[in-house]
Amino acid sequence: MLRYLGATDNLLNRLPEHLGGLVSLRELHLRGNQLSALPDSVRGLGELRMLNPRENLRTELPDALRRLPRLHTLDLRWNKRLRLPESLGELEKRCCYVLL
């Protein structure tokens, strides 16, 4: 059962759709890659508490992030051309720390 996935500084430019199948995952660290988006399948990461996709080429975040009930930290610092979804406010209302 995978609970922590660290894929920092790996020059990743995309993530597989089956990422959402890691239902026990609690921390996902994606710092320092070349990602431009997260797959919509992240909605399947119901146990996720920490999502760190900072320092990427991201332009968009999926609306599916608001469907992560246990998410308490979302680190978006140092992303270029970041477009924030309106649902980001819902995360903050649930006491999720959103670092910009």
Automatic annotation (TrEMBL):
Entry-linked Pfam families: LRR_1
Q: Which Gene3D superfamilies match?
A: Ribonuclease Inhibitor
Question: Does Lipid metabolism appear among the keywords?
Answer: no
Claim: rRNA processing is one of the keywords in the record: no
Q: Which InterPro entries match?
A: Leu-rich_rpt, Leu-rich_rpt_typical-subtyp, LRR_dom_sf, LRR_domain-containing
Gene Ontology CC entries for this record? cytoplasm
What UniProt keywords apply to this chain's record, in alphabetical order?
A: Leucine-rich repeat, Repeat
Q: Per its record, how is this protein called by name?
A: Leucine-rich repeat domain-containing protein
Recorded source organism is Amycolatopsis acidicola
